[in-house]
Amino acid sequence: xKIENSLNDKSSxxxxxxxxxxxxxxxILLLCxxxxxxxxxxxxxxxxxxxxxxxxATLSTTLTAATVFEDSYDAHNKIxxxxxxxxxxxxxxxxxxxxxxVDWHDRQEQTGWYPRLLREWIYLKPLSVNINHSEANVGTLxxxxxxxxxxxxxxxxxxxxxxxxxxxxIISFLLSEFLHRGILASLRNITxxxxxxxxxxxxxxxxxxxxxxxxxxxxxxxxxxLTEMQTLQASLIRDNRTLAAKxxxxxxxxxxxxxxxxxxxxxxxxxxxxxxxFVLLFLDGDRFKSINDNWGHAAGDEVLKAIGSRxxxxxxxxxxxxxxxxxxxxxxxSSRASEAQxxxxxxxxxxxxxxxxxIAEGTPISTSVTIGYAWSQHGDTVESILERADMNMYKxxxxxxxxx
Length: 404
Hints:
This is diguanylate cyclase. This protein is an alpha+beta fold. It contains twelve helices and ten strands.
């Protein structure tokens, strides 16, 4: 929808091309119209003047006898006959002694600004010819040309010429629209592809080939850019996943860290109504400070790695083993649903941890953990279940000190 709106927008390239084509065609046709109109008007002017001169020459010859004998009746008939046929608007016959034999005017002469301007432009002034007899001037014939035929011819010619130009303009516009389809289709492919990539974030799309060389080069460059962006996106996704995994992983033991442990515990508490209850084990290392003091921190790190590995070996797939910090570990156990199963698991943990750990120098080290646990209850929060497990752990640590 947005793409269609952009195509219909006044600032779109489609409307820009349409405007350019229309203006270009209109200017060319206007110039052609002016050229043809001017040529036609000049031709009509020359034709009408030449025609009036021929009429005057012919009429002056036929009026020679009437002028010599001052026969106004005969002269009037001859002039009126041609005048009624639309050959001229007015005629005046004067003898050499200034006697007016005929002063004829067309009663149907057109009036108004258009015939008046046309008459003044074509004829400028009335045409006067001498009437000669025996090589002597016996009179003068003055004619004013008619513009009736010329006015109608010019009017209809301009109407036909204008109509033809408008038809040509429309055809030119439609032809331009047809010729612009290839350009617009190429641009539409490019813009729609870019629009899709921007809004979807999918850089796997490729712009199709274009028959226009410039658009094809542009499409190739965009496709190359999309390929690079797709590669960069895949690299960023891998890096983000790696960073996300590392953010939830203890760097020393490879177990889940405190943040991952709290997130998983929160999830189990939210699901405890739909699933069976689970148990939280809190494990605290014994004599870990003395191991660091006697054998160094490197040995302490090896001990922590071994404890984490042994706890992971006892956990099922749905269980979670985490290192909370220092020598504190925790387990979220969903695979044991009874107290007896839990006691058996804790026994296995104590036996596994109590086995000697051989450090890099080949020295065997013994260690142990104190375990506190808490079963999940309805209405538990992260803080409440951690507090119960922690209290149980310290209670068991106190018991082990009394036994020792």
